[in-house]
């Protein structure tokens, strides 16, 4: 497990009727602040502000086809050649990061083919180096963006 410190990440929030919305700087729009969205936005802030991943090379909640099924990934960071580099699966804080979370990420990986995987619920985070599919290595920190 790795530790992601979100304490310095500031989200832009505003009320919208009886709900709260958060500004997603990647999608450039206000979205409803669900527990999973809260984790996703903290992760985006961490990747861009702490780890210095280029915001222009991040994608959030994009549709993909997994086999014949339409799905949406949470976050993908692309390398400078615009190839998937890190695939992140976010869960709400009350949802444990489990084998089923990993299976969901692996389903997306079958289409996306990223070099690194990240699973998080905001409290727990696990990151793997998947560049060698015969020997997946679980990491102690997020990879530096190069």
Describe this structure in words.
This protein has helices at residues 35-50, 99-112; strands at 13-16, 19-24, 29-32, 58-60, 63-66, 69-72, 75-78, 84-90, 116-120, 125-129, 137-138. The chain has 146 residues and is α+β, with helices and mostly antiparallel strands. It has one domain (13-138): tt1808, chain A (Alpha-Beta Complex). Strands 4-7-8-9-10-11 form a 6-stranded mixed β-sheet. Strand 5 and strand 6 form a beta hairpin. The longest helix has 16 residues, at 35-50. The mean pLDDT is 96.
Report the order of strands and helices: EEEHEEEEEHEEE
Helix content: 10-25%
The major β-sheet equals: 6 strands, mixed
Q: How many runs of DSSP E, i.e. beta strands?
A: 11
Q: Name the shape in a single word.
A: globular
The CATH topology name reads tt1808, chain A
Strand content: 25-35%
Average the pLDDT over all residues and give the rounded result.
96
Please report the distance between the alpha carbons of the first and last residues.
22 Å
């Amino acid at each position: 497990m790795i530790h992601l410190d979100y304490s310095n990440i500031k989200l832009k929030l505003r009320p919208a009727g009886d709900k709260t919305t958060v500004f997603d700087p990647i999608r450039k729009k206000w979205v409803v602040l669900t527990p999973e969205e809260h984790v996703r936005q903290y992760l985006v802030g961490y990747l861009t502000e702490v780890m210095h991943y280029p915001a222009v090379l991040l994608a959030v909640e994009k549709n993909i086809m997994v086999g014949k099924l339409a799905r949406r990934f949470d976050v993908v960071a692309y390398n400078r050649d615009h190839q998937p580099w890190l695939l992140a699966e976010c869960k709400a804080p009350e949802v444990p990061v489990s084998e089923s979370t990993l299976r969901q990420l692996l389903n997306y990986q079958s289409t996306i083919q990223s070099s690194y995987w990240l699973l998080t619920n905001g409290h727990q985070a696990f990151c793997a180096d998947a560049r060698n599919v015969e020997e997946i290595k679980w990491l102690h920190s997020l990879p530096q963006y190069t």
